[in-house]
Structure formats: C-alpha cells, structure tokens
Amino acid sequence: MASTETQPKVEDEPVAKGAATAVADRKTDPAGDLAGLEAGLDALDTRTSARTPLPVLLRRKALPPVVAVVLVLGLWQAAFALNLKPDYQLPSPLMVWDALAEEWYKGTILGIIWQSVSRGALGFAVALLVGTPLGLLVARVRPVRAAIGPILSGLQSLPSVAWVPAAIIWFGLTDATIYTVVLLGAVPSIANGLVAGVDRIDPLHLRAGKVLGATGVSGVRHVLLPAALPGYISGLKQGWAFSWRSLMAAELIATSPELGSGLGQLLETGRSYQDMPLVLGAILLILLVGIGIELLVFAPVERRVLRHRGLLR
Amino acid sequence: MTVTETLTGTERAVAARIAGVSKTFGAQQVLDDISIDVAEGEFVTLLGASGCGKSTLLNLVAGLETPTAGTIDVPGGRPALMFQEHALFPWLTAGKNIELALKLRGMPKAERPAEAERLLELVRLKGAYRKRVHELSGGMRQRVALARALAQDSNLLLMDEPFAALDAITRDVLHEELTRIWAETNVAVLFVTHNVREAVRLAERVVLLSSRPGRIAREWEVGIPHPRRIEDADVAGLSVEITEQLRGEIRRHGQH
Questions:
Q1: Which pTM was predicted?
Q2: A38 in reach of chain B (CB within 8 A)
Q3: Which stretches does the entry tag as region Disordered (chain A) (predicted)?
C-alpha cells in the first residue's frame, strides 16, 4: 500500500515486483503462511485514492468559472461602452449593481429573496412527499406503470407556466395557485428520477437482498431505496430546478398585494417601470439563488453518495 | 421432515435434499430428475459444462426459483448464497454489509458490530470494517461476501462459481481459506464450478452434470486427505479422469 501511495505515477513497477515476491514466498514456505500471503495480496491490490490538496482543487474547480464570469462582465462592459443599445435598454454592470444596492438600502431585498426561497423550499418539500411514493409505485407496480408512467414522463416536458392560467381560474390570486404550479412542475421530475434510479439497479443486488431475507418493506428500505439513491438524487436536483422555475413563472404572472413580494414580482415591478437595471438585477438574483441552492444543498449530497460508492474520483 | 433418514447410507443428517427435481423454462428443459443429498457439514461440488443448469439448480435450492417437478428440502432454513460477482452493497461499508445480514437474520443491534468484526477476522480482513466496497480488491470483496454469507448462520452455503473471476494466485489462496473456514464452521457447502481441478481440490464429493438437459452423469468420492493443493498429483490424477468423462459428455452434443 505504501508504495502505491507514495509514488502513484510509477504504480506498475512496484506492483509487478511485489507480485513476484509473493509467489516466491509461497514457494519457499511450504507450511504456507497463508495469512501473510493474503496480507501481501491485499496490500498489493488495494488502491488508495489520495484526496486532491485544496489549492490544486481551487485552481481546477473554482478558477475556470471565475474566469468565465469575468469574461462575460468584460464583454458586457465593452458592449455598453460601444453604445450598441441605448442605456435604458442595455445598462452597464455597475448600473445593475447600483439598482440592487438601492433595493438593499430600502431594506426589502432580503425579505423578497426569503419569500421566494421559502415558497420554493416548501413547494419542493411537498413535491418530495408526493413524488417519492408515486415514483416507487410507478417503478414497482406494473399496472400503475403502464397506466401513468407515460403520462408522468410527458408531464415533465410540459412547461409548468402553462398551468398558471388554469391555476388562477381554480384558486384565484392565492398561495394555492403558486403551490399548484410548483407541484405540477416538480412532482413529475422527482417521481421520474426515482423510477429511473430503480430501473438502473443491478438485478444482482436485488437477488442478493432476497437471499439475505430482505423482502417486502425491509427489501425496499435496505436494498431498493439505497440502490436507487443516485438516480433519485438527480431526480431531486431536477425537481428543485423545476420547482424554482415554476415558482418564478407563477410569481411573475400571479401578482397581487396579498401574495406578498417575491423575486418574480420584483422582476414584474422592474418591467412595469421600464427599469432595465432592476430587471437584470432580479434575473441575476433568481439565477444566483438557483445556483446557490444547487451548490450548497444538492451538490454536496450527491458528491457524498457517489464517492461512497466509488463512482466519483 | 426426517432429517436423520439417509439415502446414501451414511449416518450424517442432511443439510439439503434435492429429490427428483426437474426445471423447464418455456419449452426448454434445463434440469431433468436431479437427486442429490448434501449431508450436514459435507462439501459437494457440482461440475458441468455450460448448459448443464448448475446455476439454475443453485437458484432452486436458494428458493429464488421453484422447480417444475420434484422437491427440495432444506431443513436448516434459508441457505446462504454466494455469487460469482461479490454482490456486496456499494452504499454500505464492508462491516455494515455483514451487519445487514445479521440484522435480517434477527440479531439484536447491540451484538452486531462485534459479530461482524469476528466474521471479518474469520476471513482475515481484520481492520476492513470501515472500508468501502470499491476500496477493496477482488479477492477481498469475495472474502467479505463470504463473511456476509456466513453471517446468515445457515448450515448450508451455496456457492455459484465464486472464484471464477479472480486471478490464479488469489483463487488459490481463497481455496485454502474456504477449506479452512469450512473445517472450522462445519457448514455444508454446495459449490458450483466448471473448473474440474477446483472441484477436486475442494470437495469431498464431485457430482458431474451432463448438459441440455442437466442430468447427473456420475459422482466421485474424493478421498484425498487435506491439506490439498491444486497442483497435487492426486488432485491432478482424479481431475484427468473426471475431465475425460466431462469431455465425453460435451462430445455427445456435437454428434446429432
């Protein structure tokens, strides 16, 4: 193990040498020091995956997006400086920043973000509670799958903004409208993710579970769900993206004083005042919240699951 | 269920009784009238070329499939089964894989970690408890799989070509380990392989199956004393004899 750890680049040579000694040991030791031989084989065969040091990781993972963002800002600033469009249509990055700063000093912006994030989180949580059992049913019960499987995948490609007029007619300008749209957007993704996860389970694991006596509920709990977890998590990720998108569509269209003010409404306010810096600022915030939740919540969970299974280096 | 009754005339109780078992999949008959008794603590290898239905027979004994005709009686309850691939759960550590088997057999939570450690020591993997499956070598994975199978505490262990995918040195070592563990635990083993030397190296009794459909062609008692080596002259001698017969069985399929 030590040899492969310290010189990962010249792995082949020491391993070959080591294997030769193991064979030699076996010949010279007819009594068979089996334990020793086995320990040697284990050591030779074990791959240790050293963690990448932090500075290298930062340079590899964090630097490229920073460079990309700087590049985009630069192009934007250049377009502004060249006066490609009048200022009220194409403001400079600084003007957008000022618009956001103004919202900040008004003291309302955190409330606005929180309004949307809490709605998104609640909608997502309910979608999770509905989508998970639904996905399990579709994945494991054949008639259910035949009946609603295709509809469920079809719903996924239906833009959830299409539900907004219907929801407004059903529920008026209330929170129920917004949550209906969010659920119709997120539930199919979550359920489909779980179905895909279950479909991709190695049949050998299901057989192994049966042999060990994991049947019925304990089979679902100890084998089926953990085995389907990677697919399930990508379903959840997509479910969040759909929740967030649907929420913004709903907030943008269903605006009323009783509904409070979220990021979608902020965007709508900017549009009605022809305030382009505010519109771009709101878009930026919506994007940042979406990316932030993905990076802070889903990415670490997914990385952890994949690393434990050796599916990630 | 009279476990002391015997067909072979020995006085050992049976760990598994396969009586007149046939299996058909659709129009194809895979197994035809197979009768084998595995005595308690006995090591039997099932040997055959492809198409002899040896894996099907193991699945039947394991209860994963039901026979078309005949009966299978496993007095000790659900047998343990080890596959050609390790079939360990990649979302659990080596130790937790074993603990899951202990949990499913009904062992109280407090006793599980110590028992899992003991089983890991039995397969000489002390200290591998926290290792993830992907961090283990092929041989180590099969040993954890063996420990997990033993964790079921069944008196019958079914093995479906468990060492076929390993390199020769590792396979050799695992033969020794399996023989040692078999002697220590007194578990009965029904071991399926297409490797004649492996069959002779390990077993007390070798059962040769013919192919399409699988029938019992012949049986050999292996009287070679332990410790055995796969390169021993006795092992090689009997292997030659069995291989001749196996080749004869295979040749029949070329002469329609």
A1: 0.76
A2: yes
A3: 1-24
